[in-house]
Amino acid sequence: MKTTIFPLMLDLVGRRVLLVGGGPLAARRAKDLVNAQAHVLLVAPQICATLRDLVDAGHVEWKAREFSSGDTEGAWLVQAATGLAEIDSAVAREALASRIWCVVASDGGLSSAWTTAVVRGSDGVVIAVSGGY
């Protein structure tokens, strides 16, 4: 089902964002969130080298475990990027029940929010929005 969406930019400075997943996609999302000056809470049993660097530098707080009920508490935004449908779906359900915007990287149909593709040029920012949702 095609959904009518409302484009929106978020000020995440100092706001908690829950990121679930430890692979390269989660790392890309984490870098963008760090650049937005969000307080990033990462939940994943294992993480890739790029995420480890962000954690070691103090840019990301890491809980080395699986997602569990209650992890969305206090978050302004949730991003599920595990690539595992069962986990991403559980993250999305909890976020929805808590009225927290959620981006599900593996399945836009589960999402209540979507990220845009951003290209940063030397003369400014160009944003390209996906037409999928």
Shape: globular
Would you report the number of β strands?
7
Low-confidence parts, pLDDT < 50 over ≥5 residues?
Answer: none
Average residue pLDDT: 90
Strand order of the largest sheet: 3-2-1-4-5
Strand content: 15-25%
What does this 3D model show about the protein?
With 133 residues, the protein is of the alpha/beta class. The chain is built from three helices and seven strands; from the N terminus they run βαβαββαβββ. It has helices spanning 24-35, 49-56, 85-97, and strands at 16-20, 39-43, 60-63, 77-80, 101-104, 117-121, 124-128. It has a five-stranded parallel β-sheet with strand order 3-2-1-4-5, with helices on both faces. The protein has a two-stranded antiparallel ribbon with strand order 6-7. The radius of gyration is 14 Å and the shape is globular. The protein starts with 15 loop residues before the first strand and ends in a 5-residue tail after the last strand. The mean pLDDT is 90.
What are the key terms here?
133 residues, alpha/beta, five-stranded parallel β-sheet, two-stranded antiparallel ribbon, 24% strand, globular
Short structural description:
Helices cover 25% and strands 24% of the residues. The protein has 133 residues and is of the alpha/beta class.
Question: What is the fold's blueprint, element by element?
Answer:
Layout: E1 16-20, H1 24-35, E2 39-43, H2 49-56, E3 60-63, E4 77-80, H3 85-97, E5 101-104, E6 117-121, E7 124-128
Parallel strand pairs: 1-2, 1-4, 2-3, 4-5
Antiparallel strand pairs: 6-7
